Prior knowledge:
Structural class: alpha+beta
Number of helices: 1
Distance between the termini: 107 Å
Helix content: 40-55%
Amino acid sequence: MKNNRANQGFTLIEVLIAAIILFASIALVAELFSASSLSSKKAIRVAEYNQAVPLINRIIKSEIQSKAVDLSLSSFSGELLAFGVDFQWQAERISLLSPPLEPDSNVARAATFGLFNVTVFTQHNDVKGEYTFAVATW
């Protein structure tokens, strides 16, 4: 009798091993896809935030400079919304200085140069942040 082993096909063990390798590969690809999707969403949030920050900073600086004309006010606050990011800010005057003396005059001029410390609180999709910067006014 001839050996018919070459014509019998795959054994059950071989099929199970091939199935385990196939399903492990599929699970690995699915995990990579899930991780890349999560990274993409985080990158979108960071991009939205980074687009909004320079715009908001310019608006805050402009608002402080327009309100600082009234020298009796030493603090300001406000709230802005841009690109889905909520910005709440507070500005405190940390100094008020006079302009330098004229070369031929000894008369001190009124204090008109202010320096404000601005603290901005952000919230975007349950992620909170905080940053500070300074604003000079005249």
